[in-house]
Amino acid sequence: MVNPVHLRTLLEVIAHGSFAAAAVPLGYTASAVSQQMTALERDTGVALFRRSARAIEPTEAATTMARHARKVLTDIDALLAASTTAAGRPGADPTEELRLGIFPSLATFALPRLLGSAGWNDLGINLRISVGEPHQTIASLQSGNELDLALVFQVGQSGLGWPGTMDRQWLGDDDFRVVVPASWKIAEGAQISAAQLANMPWIMHHAGTSDATVISRLFASCDLHPRVVAYCDDFNASLHLAGAGLGAALVPALAMQQRPPGLVVLDVPEIRLARSIFALQLGNSRSPKVDVFMDKLAAELRKISIVP
Q: Which of 306, 279, 299, 308 is nearest to 138 (CA)?
């Protein structure tokens, strides 16, 4: 029989690309992760990884198994959540409050999809939501009496940190896109170099913010020193300003879900950047319903190509 714990470990290994990297969020050693994957291969009778001295590579069988594992684990978590509700005292409220901190673009473009999905009302989760930037939600979670779960993002090594007492679960990577006004007459999806954008007007984050620091370093690495015509930390506003012809912008794919007219997305090979989305909890606050919520949210993110 396949151990569900091994399936969860498989998902982390594929997401992080190595046994050592997967061990960190799981709280295991790299050796323990390797042993679990060996046991899973033995139980299923298929090779899941091609191993070499320097790296591991998931096989097609591993990718297929991971796709089915997500659904199986979600069903298991839902069953546990339902059992928890059923085991409650007679007459008790069957819903469980979940105090959620979430960043704006995730609250705008992903959470409503989950709230409107089939079966959401059957989960017995009553959300109390606080929308804010990652540093705000992490502080609220750390206080211990304001939030149960914080959904945050980190752009590169942007300096965003959290205490080791918090459990971290990776939910996906949100790739940035280079967008320019359609009035510039560049074809959608055209591959161009950073040098071709060097003299164009740009909409940038305010200097000093973590995103601005990472983006500035990326641009400097490809010798791109933008001519800034606007400073804006709101991606939705940046998109509309770009669509109106003001300048180019770098925005995450999540914010492109309601892309305004007048925009063209370009492929600039030198500009590769993503923000990683994490769910944070205090170590003693895990519950089956929280796990169900995160699994369901990850499923919605997969539908909009945020999770591979």
A: 279
